[in-house]
Description:
The structure holds two protein chains of two kinds. Chain A is an alpha/beta fold. Chain A is 26% helix and 22% strand. Chain A has two domains: 27-88 and 378-433, Urease, subunit C, domain 1 (Roll), CATH 2.30.40; 89-189 and 200-372, TIM Barrel, CATH 3.20.20.140. In chain A, strands 1, 2, 3, 4, 5, 14, 15 and 16 form an eight-stranded mixed β-sheet that branches. The radius of gyration of chain A is 23 Å and the shape is globular. The longest helix of chain B has 27 residues, at 966-992.
Amino acid sequence: MKRIFSYILGLTACATQLHAQETVYPAKPQKGLIYLKNATIHVGNGQVISNGTIGFNNGKIIAVGNNVAIPADDVKVFDVQGQHVYPGLIAPDSDLGLTEVESVRATNDYSEVGEINPSVRSIISYNTDSKVIGTLRTNGILLAQVVPQGGLLSGSSSVVQLDAWNWEDAAYKADNGIHFYMPRLMPRGNPFGAPSAGPATDAVKVAMAQIEGVRTFFREAKGYLQETKHTATNLKYEAIKGLFDRSQKLFIHCDLVKELVVATDIAKEFNFDVVIVGGTDAWLITDVLKQQNIPVILNQPHSLPVMQDDDVDQPYKTAAQLQKAGILFCISNDGFWQQRNVPFNAGTAAAYGLGKEEALSAITLNAAKILGVGDKTGSLEVGKDANIVVSTGDILDMKSSVITRAYIQGREVSLEDKHKQLYERYKYKYGLN
Amino acid sequence: MKSNPLPAGVLPVNESKYRCLSRITRLRYKAVYGVIGCMLAGFTAVAQETYPVNGVAEPKEACYAFTHATIVKDAQTTLQDATLVIRNGKIVAAGASAAVPKDAVVIDCKGKYIYPSFVDIYSDYGMPAIQRRTFGGFGGGTGPQFISATKGAYGWNQAVKSEVNAAQLYNADEAKAKGLREQGFGIVLTHQNDGIARGTGALVSLASEKENKTIITEKVSANYSFDKGSSTQDYPSSLMGVIALLRQQYLDAQWYKTKPAAEGINLSLQAWNDNQPLVQIFDANDKWNAVRADKIGDEFGVQYIIKGGGNEYQRIPEMVATKAAFILPLNFPQAMDVEDPNDARFVALADMQNWELAPSEPGAFEKANITFALTTADLRDVKSFLANVRKAIEYGLTEQRALEALTKTPATLIKSYDKIGSLDAGKLANFLITSGPVFQENTTLLQNWVQGNKYVLKEEGWNDIRGTYALQLKGATYPVEIKGTSAAPSLSYLGKDTVAGKIEVDGKLIKLSVPLTKDGKQQLRLSGVIGSDNKWSGSGVDEKGNYGNWTASLTKAFTPKVDSAKKKEPLQLGKLYYPLSGYGFETMPKQEDILIRNATVWTNEKEGKLEGTDVLIRNGKIMQIGKGLAAGNARVVDGTGKHLTPGILDEHSHIAISRGVNEGTQSVTSEVRIGDVVNPDDVNIYRQLSGGVTSSHLLHGSANTIGGQSQLIKLGWGVNAEDMKFRNWDGFIKFALGENVKQSNWGDRQRIRFPQTRMGVEQVLVDAFTRAKDYEKAGPGKRRDLELDALVEIMNKKRFITCHSYVQSEINMLMKVAERFDFRINTFTHILEGYKVADKMKAHGAGASTFADWWAYKMEVQDAIPQNATIMQRVGLTVAINSDDAEMARRLNQEAAKSVKYGGMAEEDALKMVTLNPAKLLHVSDRIGSIKAGKDADLVLWSDNPLSIYAKAEKTIVDGIVYFDREKDLELRARIASERNRLIGKMLGEKKRGMPTQRPVPSREEIYHCEDLQGGHQHSVLEDARQEIK
């Protein structure tokens, strides 16, 4: 593979150096001005600047546009002619760092015992030394929301940046939200035969009772929090304080229409800042979601249609339907290592009705807004963190995109990863270049 | 406790003699006595000679003559004003001029119809209840069970119960018998419906007599199924395993005839052989299983009678082709309660269509001239049987064929027409007396005689008392009219006004209230009897309360109103689709001659990518590639701005498979064949066509070291399994290594099966091939072993391996094992560490089929890298990218493109990884995989560069047939919406009319990955994702 990078001042050439995994270091804080010029800049808010320049200093973007004056001294300038500059991509729903090897129990730290665990914090498990993280950076994913699972209220998530020594460094926004996994509101059949009858097996009733249990928990917490003095401290109630003052979001994981309706009702009752995670069937009730102003972290488009009668491309086009309805949404991908496919999921949504820049917003600015970090990142605008990715081509298309540079808070992060290193090792073995 | 030593009707005076009877048995007596009440004079039971009599013996011949009846001797022969004579439980004569014997009790059947009682040849009447296991295989929660738990000198597999005899298990069940008699049945062929081979079925009557008398024939049938029933043994866990087991049983039974010393006594095989002369009945229970069963039969020279499941109407040509006779259930589905639109969403159109069309099954069989019998099997409630027969008639079955399907046909199928099935002399006195033609809605089944025993089904209505009567009381005459139905008559007084009164008939007793005035203040209250001359008499009071005798005699007979054609709505049914799926075809698309003009053609040949080029296809083949080609009669498709590629071939797929991709219950299962269980109805076929896939290599899973034989298919949508199979194809087989086969991630209970380590995996392989080598050398008379046959084929280079593998050590090992036995591994699949040993694979001659970028999901994929394909390709291997996933297969082109991104592979080489290279790996590159004159017209027209994320397949062509067309797809979506709407409306109507409905539950799809066990899984949204966090 031959890619030509043209550097002015050729100051760094780290991409050609190979470090062993353990000597790939988190980057040091940005020192001095950096400019990328002659780029096609995709701002993340729909705007595209051809032949533009972006400058950043001390981790913040200081200039973006066509006519950016570049100072003469103490500046690193990179001519990225022909390349594309994007905001760092965001994986909005992931167990990244909470697991290393899916099938090895000892590495799984995403699911606690119990149904109501709002005080559990995913950030504590987040392993900055996971070998997976590098493989995401290499594809332009620079931020992720790491989400706990298990039970009904499974704990708080945090937004992390993907180049850190430890979880404290990684925390981009700690405890940004509480996650509620709503039980499925769908009748169940016997998978191997005739539908089972009778109320005893009514999964919907059981689920509704569970949901009512969660609502009761919210009501009791509300009461508890209105009184400042307590003889005994209830950590679970304390943990959701932020929901009531809307400093934290309630992420409700649900997919089907009835579940979405219940979710909007919860938002109404408690005046919570609710986000839907999943939303597979959200396309069926866009008006309700729009009316309630509830954003959606959409399930990965690379999914099968739910029902055999569904349009064969339904999961591909749901994003476009939400866009058309005016719903704030972003696009997610299951899992942890799979997050490197986030841009291609957005690409598929673009192929099926979403504009390319809208698709980009769905993995950058809109994701940032939904996760509560829209003021800091998600777009290439002055004042925001310099979370920047440079690609040889359209970042949404695997055919044409290779990431050449990435900056998190202005720090040029390593684009080494375990895979590239093994690649090099065996190219060496076979004498390939 | 199964013996009932009492002739019915004899009270057990000597209690001590029966002290061993269980409470349950006594309760059963109660039930029997309960019946005696309504048996009246018809009770003819004769104690058996060997049984002691408690009291005075009562020998009798029980001769009856039924006169003046309309006798339907069989479906072809109806005799008017005829007489039926029976004696000792057998028919003596039936005819217009049949003589009435002197000792006969004469029963006047004027106005009545007499039919042969019905015959059900698929029943488990009188059999013990079976504890069925829902999930087969892998030991449930208890750890694996490799060998049968049946005690005794029986065979190795617990699901093969050929030694079971229904006659020995039979225990008459009066409650069930009554239910069946009420629906017109007099006799059933019953068997224990448990297991794959279920032993023999016995012909038993439904008379409430001692079992000794009601077993008519001890062994009539040998029964089989695809359901392992109560067997707790792991093998077989999959449908293909069941089929393999059946095959091997036929072979073993043949071999057992030579009395092999090594086997000793095997009562199961002995019984299997003994049962072969009987009627062979297979419970297929599904249209495709019917085809599968018939195919097994063909292999071993057996023609089964196939018991259907109710969906066979969807594939009538295939049913005809089996040449089998069928036993059809009438288990028509209930409408679903679709009032809640958000629940209705999860009911597939196919299920709604099946609800609408299922009652047309018997009629469709009649039209197709397929021999069939009807059964009560699978009904939710046996009481719905006759109503469902009527429904089938309404949906196109003729009454004559319905009657045949309940009498002569089943009797003939089980070679018992000499005993049952018509009213010919010498047959069992099993007959029905009805008030009219048996299948008419308002006909009452009055009596069902079984073996000469009378069972009154409905007392009321035997005498039709309707008409106008002159009622006389104390000198006055009151005209009254009896109307209503014969079973439920109503009375009105024809005075100045017509005033409705009341009449109650209880057998011969009659009770009348006759109001003389409208206000009902004056009325006659009378009771009495209906005389044998049909004159009524009794005593009662007049309107003043004075007692007196009364009589009534008929002045004018009732003339039934000609049913003024109760206007039935004409039947409006939707069309049958192929397959029955929202996206099915009403008419199958035909092979077309097509000229694709001015496209960018990715030839995969030395010409490379050709811009602005035409491709002509004719007769399913690529004819010509060039510029400005003449279209001739071919349809012209404009390819301007579009890309034409060979169809995508997925080297590793698990779509379109029924009931399990893994027979992982043993470490070596080379006898099982995916080809036996191809499922043409899987909607993923259509979905993958929409992603440009034209061929898929359907693999056994990776749960064991030597898995099953695979099947290469062409994606045909709407065709049957046989037509999907790739013709003249070298057979392949799936092997697997690593964590799955050593059960690393299956939990602590699964630590018993050998192997548990990679060392053990090698030994499994070496052992299997060593056995195969010895087997091949063994002389004549050896037991044919289907498992070893497949391995011998491998060693003789007639069958080729595609092996699931991850880490370098095991890849290396397998190649060494193969070399030791002088063959080669054709393909390593998954092969995520192939890049580490690509040179060794090259030297060995293996190819590779891998994932684009999967890793980290388990320990053995920790070193998987997305540059794997590139390295292997650069070292010189033939490399493919595969899916192992129904979703990913729809965008394999983009998965291939990831090698452009991660490894810098050339675009054309990347495309080859999902077209030409897998074709090479599967030895079919002479026919598919590139665009070259003479090759199969398996092509995809893309909207964009096929490696781009923005590329959509616009047309997918297989053998010149356009199976997917993005524009047609839009029409199908509209059709789905309107059909769903129509059927939901129809179901709502059903609910409004008060018909029973069932709760809607999500229609299920079978989706599989390599590691999935029997059940597969549903869409993640439909499964409880909370339970199963990945």
